[in-house]
Amino acid sequence: MSVSETYYPSEPTAPVVKTSVIPGPESKKQTEELSTVFDTRPVYFVADYEKSNGNYIADVDGNVYLDVYAQIASIALGYNNPALIEAAKSPEMIRALVERPALGNFPGKDFKQILDNILKVAPKGQDKIWSGLSGADANELAFKAAFMHYQAKKRGYGTSFSEEEETTTMLNQSPGSPELAILSFKRAFHGRLFASASATCSKPIHKIDLPSFKWPKAEYPDYKYPLDDNAEYNDAEDKRCLAIVEDILTNWHAPIAAIIIEPIQSEGGDNHGSAAFFQGLRDLTLKYGSLLIIDEVQTGVGATGTMWAHEHFNLSPAPDMVTFSKKFQSAGYFFHDPELVPNYSYRQFNTWCGDPARMIIAGAIAKEVVDKNLIANAKEVGNYLFGKLEGLSKKYPTELSRLRGKGRATFIAWDASSSEARNSFLAKMKLNGVNVGGCADHSIRLRPTLTFGKKHADILVATIDKVLSQN
């Protein structure tokens, strides 16, 4: 019996499309009503979560879609997962929801265990956690930790602030508010808050009109595919990009406190970097005294065939911080250096310091991933799916090009011929009962749950074939 059959004995066996257009009439009606109080312009359809099951999402018109987008890569186990429902009924969850604690001042007696449940699947080399509220928040908190660490290292970790620092920071002036930078990469996405948006470089719409920190952007490798046929070119691409990073670390007008990077640039087009590139990057951070932050918001929690995507690279030493959110249903960053805890309390702080209700769910997800061996399932199904897609890429070389994600479980993407072709493809897939997402200008990305099986892969591939054959 497959994992999905174990969890979801009544999961649909195939998509059901009842309307001739999507969104259907009831979705349109409810969207219009919702629009009086909420911006509904990005809405694809109004979901019926009570009727959604496993790898299928239902809408209010009775359409049932095979979901390989999974709430923008944030559903780990599928809809209405019984294990998560039990966690939601627990006494710990009731307390977390009803008495939401200010964790920094008044942590509950169960808080250590809640964190330990998450730390059981922490990235290799990490044994501490700071919790946040979203992926963007996790990255901003990591930036704060990096800046405070840089200044503490310069000043002396146990050294008090000077009177000049305390005076000038109230005026947003140096030395109390020093000019420091975070180095990120072109095509990166790290969030839409102020600092995270300054590090983001994927689409103008993500950050236009926002004042920004004037931080540098290096170049992320842009490989040719298939990888095995282009090893020499891609090796040179790694070296070119690392040279750009080193030049910025050497010559930027302000110190680079940290580098932040995604193991796979997801919003920016599912761009991959090699183990050699990432180890080279780690070596440069050590050489120049910058921290390395790995942004695992979208890539984390098993979808690439390891719990954390950067574990494919076997980095030595481990990254300084690893941020997380999405599939964990919680947010924050892992770390290991005690001196990343600011030298005075109330520096890394807010009212709630995270959300214990979401952390309980994260711990429950972690337990299911381990107990049900879901990463092995994702690897097996991903290899099966990639092989099927390789066949389709030969049949449709223009609309299924640069297929990437081999050896990365179900974290797979490809390019269409244009933005218009990609958008048309996504719309036609919905009309044929499959919910799939795009990224960058003309890419398609697959983000199914960890319970996605071969039977789901067969439906997906058959639908892709059907839609592309109509071009």
Quick overview:
The protein has 471 residues and is an alpha/beta fold. It is built from 15 helices and 16 strands. Helix content is 38%, strand content 13%.
Q: Would you give an account of this structure?
A:
With 471 residues, this protein is α/β, with parallel strands linked by helices. 38% of the residues lie in helices and 13% in strands. It has 15 helices and 16 strands. It has helices spanning 3-7, 25-34, 70-73, 82-88, 91-98, 111-119, 135-155, 163-169, 194-199, 231-251, 275-288, 356-371, 374-395, 419-431, 454-469, and strands at residues 56-58, 64-67, 128-132, 181-185, 217-218, 256-261, 264-265, 271-272, 291-295, 321-324, 331-335, 401-404, 412-415, 434-435, 437-439, 443-446. The strands form 4 sheets. It has a 7-stranded mixed beta sheet, with helices on both faces. A 4-stranded antiparallel beta sheet has the order 12-13-16-15, covered by helices on one side. A hairpin with a 5-residue loop joins strand 7 (264-265) and strand 8. Helix 4 (82-88) packs antiparallel against helix 12 and helix 10 runs parallel beside helix 11 (275-288). The mean pLDDT is 97.
Radius of gyration: 23 Å
**Mean pLDDT figure:** 97
Through-space gap between termini: 37 Å
Structural class: alpha/beta
Helix-residue proportion: 25-40%
Helix tally equals 15
Largest sheet strand order: 3-11-10-9-6-4-5
Main beta-sheet annotation: 7 strands, mixed
What's the total number of strands? 16
**Beta-strand level of the residues, as a percent range?**
5-15%
Overall 3D geometry? globular
Low-confidence regions? none
Quaternary structure of the protein: single chain
